[in-house]
Structures are given as structure tokens and as C-alpha cells.
Amino acid sequence: MMKVCIGILTAAVVFAVFFVVPPAEGLGYYVRLAFFHIPLAWVSVLAFFLGAWWALRYLKSPAPILDRRSSRAIALGLVFAVLATLSGAVFSKLTWGAYWNWDPRQTTIFVLLLIYGAYLTLRSAVRDPQKRARSSAVYALFSFLTVPFLVFILPRLYFSLHPSPILNGSGSIDMDPVMLVVLVAALVDMTLIYLALLKYLVARPDKGGYLDEP
Amino acid sequence: MKLSVWAGIRLVVHKEITAGLRFRAAWTAMLMFAVTSLACLSLALQGRDPGPVILAALLWILLFFSSFAGADRVFTDEAATGTLEVLKIYGPSQAVLFGKMIYSFGLLFVLACVLVPLYLILLDVTVLDWGLFSAVIFAGLAGIAAAGTLIAALTVGSSVHNGLFSVLMFPVILPVFLPAIGLTQQALTGDGAGLAYLGGIVLYDMILAVAASLLFDYLWYED
Amino acid sequence: MITITFDRVTRSFGGKPLFDSLDAKIRGGKITAVTGPNGSGKSTFLRLAGHLLRPDSGQVSVKCDDAELRRADYRDRLGIVTPELRFYPRLTAYENMTFFLGLRGKTLTTDTYRDLLKRVGLDETAVRGKFAGAFSTGMRQRLKFAVLLASGADVWLLDEPAANLDAAGRAMILREARQAAASGAVVLWATNDAGEEEKADEVIRLGGNPARRS
Fold first, then answer.
1. From B155, B172, B197, residue closest to A142, measured CB to CB
2. Which chain A residues touch C54 with a CB distance below 8 Å?
3. d(Cα B15, Cα A201) in Å, to the nearest integer?
4. pLDDT higher for A105 or B12?
């Protein structure tokens, strides 16, 4: 049932992105890529929040299921983060002529990739299952700290080519209303896709695999 | 009789220093890494001036990677000597964590005392604001000590732990690394990001220390 | 008085299951032997009892007169002698002892130090100024006991404590263990030796695959 809803929503969003949304000022039809890139980036961060949440719960009262959820949330988040980075790089090339320029948003997603990568490296390096669960939970929480600092420091430290946030500081929304609706729908859709995939990953019987090397 | 945390910390620091002085290989590796890297750089530059931005970045790359060569030893040495278990039994968690953190900072301070003067001389660096220059180095090393001690505890008993330590450290230390470079640049040229960033680094250092303190108990105790 | 209760404890080691739903109750005031063939999990049992390891499922609860003992409160009362235990190799016996006892809030006067050495059969002149790393296995074992005795622990976890000791040493251990048990301490003694097993007040037999209490 849920999968059907997601399927319909996804189809609706894709349709809207290609046929309904008007071209954006200055970006033209390239703005379509933003409807994939922004939800992907949003989910990458959300994934980390979820992973950290379950990590905290695991530390408070260790149960293997919590470790399972935490590790798979983060591992899946890596996939979304990679896609977000790639789509962002392509967008950057199309609109500003360079794939990578270390602007604050790109730096943040890069750091997120580093954290994801470090987390997975840690998991594969610890043999004992209990120790592995505990160490990765601690690291998920510890590395979490770095993100808000970078999000606030970097924009002031370096010049930014990134478009100003759609919802800027004063709360006003400087975006075409149709675009906004489609964007929100895309965000919801991507989140649901992520959660459905996560549910599948947590529930399916393990063949061992990269996250839980014996 | 319950031991106060301060007394415990003092005991741990004293033990670390005593054992550390008798086991020179532990920190000489770190110092040699620093000196050889610096020498390589100086040789490669051949007296050319790369400019304040690159000079600032070079200093921090040297400091960070040299410190990584030694910072994870506080726990891996315990595992290597087989004393980790007995330390767990007798040592209260916070005393051990902060004792080792303080010792790490001391070690890094010694590293800086060796590396920084050589850096200034070999790369012919002029510093305009000595106060800022020293303060940034202090704050940066404190961050490495705070984060490094906890991450060292994470890597104990894992395979490939040397590379693992750097990989785990880097994202966490980035909020120190990037502003530190900017501030050092400012100390060299008098023009740059602004003192607010120094406050930011210090704040982050404190957050790292508090987070390490909260999380360490979960690593130290099994119940 | 302290009681340690194992409640349906399961634990694996290196992928191999050691205990499956193990129940046990260990009381203070007596010497409890833990026996079983090599690899049956005696050392693991001891560590589970000391909260140095966590069970995969089930619970190990430690109570002192109905009050639950955890973390630092429990660790403070723990004393352990195992073959894997090591002291700091580049500190002398005296420095090691003052460090560990200092962490328990106990000061070591020179008189107490001398008395302890005598009690465990260590020659003071042989030990003076010598790094613990240079000790023979017998000397090391005796030093472990010296620390245990001085620590005032009332939960003793002894893993093959008489290994590497001569007859006098073995007699010393038994004497000290009896004394500790008489004053109400929990004394858990893991051993392969039938003679030692005989001297115990209670026996927990591990073995079988996986182990259940018999």
C-alpha cells in the first residue's frame, strides 16, 4: 500500500518537474535538477540525524535492533549523499562552469561524505559486534557536532556561489509558488523513498555484509 | 574513601609523564615526523615565498598530521602493554579521560615548541600579531587533544588503527582546522577573518571536551 | 553482602556461542569455584560477573543488600587477578601500586608496602627499583595479589590464580582467599585444578556446548 503511494507521488513529482514548473530566473530549465538535488541533500542530512538518534538510544539501552537501524540509516544516507554531491556538481558545472568550488554547501556535503565514510571505515575495522555497535554509536554522535559548526562558520568564512537559501533568514520566500509546492512535494517524496528503503534494509535477513563483518 | 576527580586526573597525568619519559620512542616518532616533513617542505620551496595563505595552511597541515602520529598513543599504548583492563578496573572514567587529555595536550605543546620555531626559521615567516599567533596554536592543539583522546579510545583493539585514527579525526577537527588557518593568516599579515573565529574555536574545543566526557562513560563501562 | 546473579545469560566469543541461557547465583562469604574444560568460558564468565563484559542477552545483576551496583560503584569494589593482567612495564612495583591504589583513594605508606610484599612473598630488595616489565611470571603474579589485597576489594575475580606459583605461593593464595571470604567478600575462582575445586565452598561447572549450569 505504502509503496503504491510512494510510486504515485514520485510519478506526480517527476511529471510536475518536467511539465508544470516554469523556468527559474537566471537558471532556466536547469532548475529542474535542483528538484532532485535539494531533496537528495535534505535526505542526506536527515539520514544522519536518524542514525545519530538511534545511536543515542542504543547507548542508553543496548539492543541489536537499534544498532541495526542506526548503521543502516547512515549507510543508506551515504548513497543519498553521494547522489546529492554528484547532482550538485553537475548543477554547478551547468550554471557556474565549474564542478567544484568549495562553496559552503559543497563543503558541508563533502564533510558529510567524510563522516559517512569514516563511520563505515570504523564499522569495518572493529571485529567484536558489541564493541562495533558501541564505538560506531559514539562516533556517530561525536561527529554530529561538527555539522552545525561548519554550517554556520563556513558561509562567513568563504565567499559563496551557492544560491541563497530559498527560505532565507527573514523567513520570506523568494520563489515562485508553483516551484515551492513542487519542491516540498519532492522533499516529502524523497524522504518517503528513503524511509521505505531503510525499512527494507533493516528488516531483510543479513548475509553478513559490509556493515557487520564478523 | 572516594577519590575526587581532580586527584584522579593528577594521578593519571603523573603516571603518563613518568611512563612517557621512560619510553621515548612514543613521542620521538611524532617529533621526527614533524621535523622531517618540515625539512622536506623547506627543501622543496627553496627559499621561495608561497604567500601567507599557503604558509598558514602549511603550518596547520604539519601540526595536524604530526600530532596524529602521536595522539592516538594514549590508549593504544595501554592496549599494547596490556594494562587497559587493569586501568579500567581501577581508574574512574573521567579521571582517565581528562588525565590523558591533559597529557596529550602537553605532548602537543612540546611538539609545537619544536615545530613552530623551526617553521618560522626554515620557511622565513614573519609574524605580525604574536598574541593571535600563539592563541590560535594553543586553541587548535587543545581541540586535537580533546577530540583525539576520545577517538583514540574508539580505535583501540581495531585493525588498521593508525590510518583509522586520521580518518575519524578529520571531519571532527575540521571546525578547528579551517578557522585556524584563516586566523594564522591574519596573524601573519594583520588582515583576515576576525577574532570572532578564535572565540568559535575555543567554544568548539569546549564542546568537544564536554561531548567526550559524556560519551566516554559509554566506552569505559559495560553496564 | 554482595550477590551476583546471572539471569538467562547468553554470550558468544569470536562467533562461537559460550553460554546459552545460563543462570547462576554467587554469594559473598564463600569461595565459589568456576570449573570446566579449556574453552568452556571460565574467563568470560568471570568478566561477565565483573561487568567487564556485557552479555549478548540476559542480565548479570550485582546487588549489595538489595541495592544495585553499577559502573564506578561496582568497579570500586572489584579486584581481579588474571593471566592477561599486566602492570605498567616501565614503572616499578611501588610506582604501579601507588598509582592503582591512589585511584582507589588509598595511600600506600612504606610500611604498608613492605607488609604487603611480605604477605605475598615478594622480596623487597629484589623488587626495588626494578621495572615491572622485567619481573618473572611468578613475581608478576605475586604483585597482582599485592595490589588486590591492598585495594580493599570485596569482589575477587581470580582466573587461574595459582598458575606460575610454587607450593608456598599456592598456599598464600588459598589463605588470602579464605580470609577474604570469611570477611564477606565474593570470591570467584576459575580453575582447571581438581584440588583447588575441592577447597571451594561452591562450584559452578561450565562445559557442554553451549554451557549451562550443572
1. B172
2. 62, 130
3. 48
4. B12
- The DSSP line for chain A is -HHHHHHHHHHHHHHIIIIISPPBTTTBTTHHHHHHHHHHHHHHHHHHHHHHHHHHHHHHS--HHHHHHHHHHHHHHHHHHHHHHHHHHHHHHHHHS-S----HHHHHHHHHHHHHHHHHHHHHH--SHHHHHHHHHHHHHHHHTHHHHHHHHHHHHS---SPPPSB-TT--B-S-HHHHHHHHHHHHHHHHHHHHHHHHHHHSPP--TGGG--
Judged on CB neighbours under 10 Å (0-12, 13-18, 19+), C61 is middle
Tell me the C-alpha distance between B12 and C77, whole Å.
Answer: 20
Number of Cβ within a 10 Å radius of residue B162? 12
Provide the number of CB pairs (under 8 Å) joining chain B to chain C: 82
Q: E strand or H helix at C112, and its extent?
A: helix C110-120
Residue C207 identity (one-letter amino acid): G
Is some CB atom of chain A closer than 8 A to the CB atom of B223?
Answer: no
pTM reported for the whole predicted model: 0.90
Q: Evaluate if residue C74 carries a pLDDT over 50.
A: yes
Cell triple for residue B175?
571546525
Least confident residue range of A64-78, B67-81, C85-99, C154-168: B67-81
Interatomic CA distance for residues B145 and B106, integer angstroms: 9
| Minimal Cβ distance to C103: which of B3, B19, B222 | B3
| CA dihedral sign of residues A75, A80, A83, A89 | negative
Instruction: Give the list of residues 6+ apart from residue C56 with CB closer than 8 angstroms, or none.
Output: A130, C10, C11, C12
CB contact B6 to C (< 8 Å): no
- Tell me if B172 sits within 8 A of A122, measured CB to CB: no
Interface of C with B in 126-185 (CB under 8 A): 151
Nearest CA-CA distance, residue B55 and chain C, Å: 40
Q: Which domain holds residue B79?
A: 5-220
Q: Which residues contact C67 (CB under 8 A, 6 or more apart)?
A: none
Q: Total domain count for chain B?
A: 1
Integer Cα distance of C131 and C121 in angstroms: 18
Query: Which chains border C (3 or more CB–CB pairs < 8 Å)?
Result: A, B
Q: Do residue A114 and residue B171 have CB atoms under 8 angstroms apart?
A: yes
CB contact under 8 A, C88 and B81: yes
Contact call for B155 and A146, based on CB within 8 A: no
- State what percent of residues in chain B have pLDDT above 90: 62
Chain A neighbours (≥3 Cβ pairs under 8 A) are B, C
d(CA B183, CA B52): 11
Chain A within 8 Å of B207 (Cβ-Cβ)?
yes
Grid cell 602549511 in the structure block, residue: B58
Residue A130: phi and psi, rounded to 5, are -70, -45
Residues in chain C: 214
Query: What SS3 state is found at C162?
Result: coil
Query: In this complex, do C54 and A214 lie within 8 Å of one another by their Cβ atoms?
Result: no
Band (pLDDT 50/70/90 cuts) for residue A167 is very low
Q: What is the spatial distance between Cα A92 and Cα A98, in angstroms, rounded to a whole number? A: 6
User: What's the pLDDT tens digit per position in B130-171?
Assistant: 999 999 999 999 999 999 999 999 988 777 666 899 999 999
Tell whether C56 lies on the interface with B, counting CB pairs under 8 A: no
Residues of C in contact with B2 (CB under 8 A): 76, 105
Q: What is the pLDDT of residue A161?
A: 44
pLDDT score, position B2: 65
Query: Are B172 and A126 inside 8 Å of each other by CB?
Result: no
